[in-house]
Write a structure and sequence with these properties.
- The protein is an alpha+beta fold and about 280 residues long.
- The chain has one domain (about 75-280).
- The protein has 1 helix and 20 strands.
- The strands form 5 sheets. Strands 3-8-5-6-7-4 form a 6-stranded antiparallel β-sheet, with no helix packed on it. Strands 9, 10, 15, 16, 18 and 19 form a 6-stranded antiparallel β-sheet that branches. A 4-stranded antiparallel β-sheet has the order 11-12-13-14, with no helix packed on it.
- It is globular, with a radius of gyration of 25 Å.
- It starts with a strand and ends with a strand.
Length: about 280
């Protein structure tokens, strides 16, 4: 291709810059699509969580009848999370429930919170995620702050293994001869078009003798089944306490909810005092 006398430019020389521009344009399009997907996911989950947390805090037809959480008590886990899921700061001291050779113990732990890359929302050079760690060699089952309980070298524990609670599941929980409980799940279970398990009219009930209390109540769930994470006597009052993963949706990776007997009100067996929500993909 001749543009002017004495100046000759080959077609390859023209095509290469054009191809480079096309590659840059395609890269920008891909980047914009990824950004839009991230924004869409963040907005959707924010709306979903806002409604769900309001139900937890203030009660609604699609949640627990165990009254609101206690705002002075906070729950935390070790691991990497989205930025807005962790409000704790490095240097804070929390009580951690740790496995020991003799069982479980409640031990003060100084935490470290570091910023890390969040693959769901961060660009390549961003670090908005938060990683929580402790200054102990052993990983705690969970961390709690604001609980008016002394450090104890022995925490009576009935179970510290995750137990799925589908409709029809019933667990006998015997703390001692005078404190025998039953945890029972009700509802219907089905497989949706997406292949995920869904629950309808789900209820989780704790009973002791003639007393019973509804802990969770969902009109429906999507790809998630609540589970028992831990049960025993955390607050030292001789009554049953529970940690339940209350997630109602597959996108909510984990939602451990703590119920304590020492804070129970209005004739209830336990009180919902804290929850820690971690979003997955």
């Amino acid at each position: 291709m001749v543009l002017a006398r004495g100046l000759h430019i080959t077609s390859d020389a023209v095509l290469k810059p054009v191809q480079g521009q096309q590659a840059e344009t395609q890269s920008e399009v891909r980047g914009n699509k990824i950004m839009l997907v991230r924004m869409s996911f963040t907005i959707t989950m924010s709306i979903f969580l806002a409604g769900w947390i309001c139900c937890i805090m203030f009660g609604c037809n699609d949640q627990s009848a165990a009254s609101p959480v206690a705002p002075e008590i906070q729950l935390l886990q070790v691991g990497a999370f989205h930025s807005d899921e962790v409000s704790a700061k490095s240097g804070e001291v929390w009580l951690g429930l740790y496995p020991t050779p003799d069982g479980y113990a409640l031990i003060p732990s100084r935490i470290t919170v570091e910023t890390v890359y969040d693959p769901l929302v961060d660009d390549e050079e961003e670090k908005t995620g938060k990683a929580v760690s402790v200054n102990e060699q052993t990983r705690p089952l969970f961390l709690i702050k604001g609980l008016d309980a002394p450090t104890r070298e022995s925490i009576k524990t009935l179970s510290a293994e995750q137990t799925i609670l589908p409709p029809g599941k019933s667990l006998d929980l015997r703390l001692d001869s005078k404190n025998e409980y039953q945890l029972t799940a009700y509802g219907t279970e089905s497989i949706g078009l997406n292949g995920f398990t869904s629950l309808e009219n789900y209820r989780l009930e704790l009973s002791k003798g003639q007393f019973s209390q509804e802990l969770l109540a969902y009109d429906s769930t999507n790809g998630a089944i609540p589970s028992l994470l831990w049960t025993g006597d955390l607050d030292g009052d001789g009554q049953l306490d529970l940690l339940i993963n209350a997630t109602p949706h597959y996108a909510v990776y984990s939602a451990p909810m703590l119920f304590l007997s020492s804070m129970a009100k209005d004739g209830n067996l336990v009180q919902k005092v804290a929850i820690f929500i971690a979003i997955g993909c």
